[in-house]
Amino acid sequence: MNHRVAEGGESPASAGFCEHAGETRGQDPMIRIRNNMPIVKIMDQEAIRRAVLRMAHEILEKNKGVDHLALVGIRTRGVILAQRLKKAIKDIEAVEVQTGILDITLYRDDLTLVGTKPLVRETLIDFDITDLKIVLVDDVFFTGRTIRAGLDALVDFGRPASIQLAVLVDRGHRELPIRADFVGKNIPTTKTQNVQVILGESDGKTDEVIVED
């Protein structure tokens, strides 16, 4: 991928593209080097903000407002993005939509591979999802297996009218017939590349999305 300018025409400095320990800049200002491998930033803080705002508008348009609408974020960064979507929707409609937290650990199809005592964190959906239009939120959409686990977990809480999917990044390489309804950015990747979404609330760093080989 060739990325010569920051999103929104910002300079790398104003976009908050910072070097971290063990990293150096490449000749391209949007690339830094770690262990002789390139790390490419494909979304900066402003690009992420705009993507969340656009998805909020798209959610409202598709669902004709906020009636019977709820958001459920998949731990960890899906929860943060769901909260940001909630705020954006409130800014647009002056209404707070119900928002829940979903841990999909026990629904993973690779559970036997993650150890004898997998870390299970709190699921918090303190409202009845029956007949609601649920927007399931995650950060990176890859093979679809995490989303499948999320769908299985959700239906244990009731029978929603519909389940829609919102993701910040769709990197392709689906292994299951699942598609996203709302996408912040489509990113062409190879299967071996690593896509990282970095958010201030979870990582203590400036928001960005990076791809490294």
What string gives the helices and strands in order? EEEHEHEEHEEEHE
In round numbers, the mean pLDDT is 86
Strand order of the largest sheet: 1-2-3-10-9
- The helix content, as a percent range, equals 10-25%
Residues in β-strands, percent: 25-35%
3D structure, described in words:
The chain is an alpha/beta fold. Residues 1-18 have low confidence and may be disordered. The strands form 2 sheets. It has a 5-stranded antiparallel β-sheet. The protein contains 4 helices and 10 strands; from the N terminus they run E-E-E-H-E-H-E-E-H-E-E-E-H-E. The longest helix is centred in the first third of the chain and has 19 residues, at 45-63. It is 24% helix and 27% strand. Helix 1 packs across helix 2 (77-93).
